[in-house]
Automatic annotation (TrEMBL):
Record-given protein name: MOSC N-terminal beta barrel domain-containing protein
PROSITE patterns referenced in this protein's UniProt entry, alphabetically: MOSC
Superkingdom of the organism of origin: Bacteria
Pfam family, any one: MOSC_N
Residues annotated as domain MOSC: 98-277
InterPro entries assigned: MoCF_Sase_C, MOCOS_middle
Length: 277
């Protein structure tokens, strides 16, 4: 048995599910979710905020987005918006009062924005892998230990993964991508099939991170030398069984996925077991 197979011998289960209805804003913890035919999770990144030129407003481009607090009720399709540190949230219906949401956001940013909607794929960063991102609780806990004054919840908010798994060692999710060869190694389609409950996914690649994770998710305040420390620790703690060919750098965490066989109404639930095929 190879080192990769040995490292992946665990019995994980799905511990938490998060969706982020408006890209770049706060997430919602839920107990179950529908997997859309595209592989995306229902409601995840369903909306994106864009400026007049069509540029997506997110943490990469606009640090002010971090200070927006958003609470969603997925059943009633409502959103409550406020600014971090300020009282008095305003509640809107996402479908009926969308123009009012746009006006609130435009006033906050100081320039006109609109909300785009895509109920089929959402607005993933990796359009070739629109499935949920996967990470383990122990991975997040380990990263919190790298940084004084960062809690598990603070790290969870920074990395914004969809599916959190438990019952495994730190970085177990690195089992979910395979080796790659050649100049296009990081784009090579060497996937690892796995099941969560009855839904089959393919793990594609370790997710490349951006400036967003270096900032406090609530205030936008940068953590000094976050990327430098993260890269050094990620390299130092990379399990020996990991397919290192997928790392052109070590600023990568969590796994991008796609669905293998689309099926209508496929459902993921907290407590589902996870198994490599």
């Amino acid at each position: 048995m190879d080192n990769h197979a040995v490292g992946c011998q665990w019995m994980p289960e799905l511990a938490q599910i998060f969706v982020y209805p408006i890209k770049a804003l706060d997430g919602v913890a839920i107990l179950q979710t529908t997997v859309l035919p595209s592989g995306a999770l229902q409601y995840d990144r369903e909306f994106a905020i864009v400026d007049a030129e069509g540029n997506v407003i997110n943490g990469k481009r606009t640090a002010e987005v971090h200070r927006i607090r958003s609470s969603f009720d997925l059943e009633t399709r409502t959103i409550a918006l406020r600014i971090e540190g300020e009282p008095g949230a305003t509640t809107f219906h996402l479908d009926v009062e969308r123009s009012a949401v746009e006006q609130w956001l435009s006033a906050y940013f100081g320039f006109a924005v609109t909300l785009l909607q895509n109920t089929e794929t959402g607005f993933p960063d990796d359009t070739n892998s629109p499935g949920p991102t996967v990470i383990s609780t122990e991975t997040l806990r380990t990263i919190a230990d790298w940084f004084p004054n960062l809690s598990l919840e603070a790290v969870r908010r920074r990395f914004r993964s969809n599916l959190e798994i438990t019952g495994v060692e730190p970085f177990w999710e690195d089992c979910l991508f395979g080796s790659a060869v050649g100049e296009a190694s990081l784009k090579a389609d060497r996937v690892v099939p796995f099941h969560i409950g009855n839904v089959q996914f393919a793990g594609v690649n370790p997710c490349q991170r951006c400036i967003v994770v270096t900032r406090d998710a609530m205030t936008g305040e940068p953590y000094p030398h976050f990327q430098k420390v993260f890269v050094a620790k990620r390299k130092e703690t990379l399990p020996e069984w990991v397919e290192a060919s997928r790392f052109n750098h070590f600023y990568r965490l969590a796994v991008n996925t796609r669905v293998v066989q689309p099926q209508a109404g496929a459902t993921l639930r907290v407590g589902d077991t996870i198994a490599l095929d």
